[in-house]
Design brief:
This protein is an all-beta fold. It is built from no helices and 8 strands. The protein has one domain.
Length: 117
């Protein structure tokens, strides 16, 4: 959902639907404060090595879904949905990176909002 908020600074918004490869890179042309909203499919909090970053800023584990209550073990791998929102500060140009590591997730929809140029 993209909306106008009276009095808010104007931002440019780009929406990416799906990824061409397992590890995904999205270029940020003008940098500054960047808001990132991402939906990932199939990630697990117990598989390690996955990450998301923007420019040189590490934003955390990309997929962190737990399947509590699915079985009597919260460490059991189950297909999950991760929806995360991040705010990052990048230089003039940067790259948003989703890296899978040992976690077999799929990058779904990613929305990026950055200052209007």
């Amino acid at each position: 959902v993209v909306y106008a908020e009276p009095g808010a600074d104007a931002k440019e918004v780009a929406v990416y639907d799906g990824a061409d490869a397992a590890d995904t890179e999205i270029e940020i042309e003008n940098g500054g404060e960047v808001d990132i909203a991402a939906t990932l499919w199939g990630g697990s909090a117990n598989r390690r090595g996955d990450s998301v970053s923007a420019g040189d800023q590490h934003l955390g584990q990309a997929a962190s879904c737990y399947a509590n209550g699915a079985v009597d073990n919260p460490n059991w791998y189950a297909f999950g949905v991760d929806v995360q929102v991040y705010t990052a500060h990048t230089g003039q140009a940067g790259v948003i990176r989703f890296e899978r590591g040992d976690d077999p997730f799929i990058v779904g929809v990613v929305a990026v909002a950055q200052p209007h140029v």
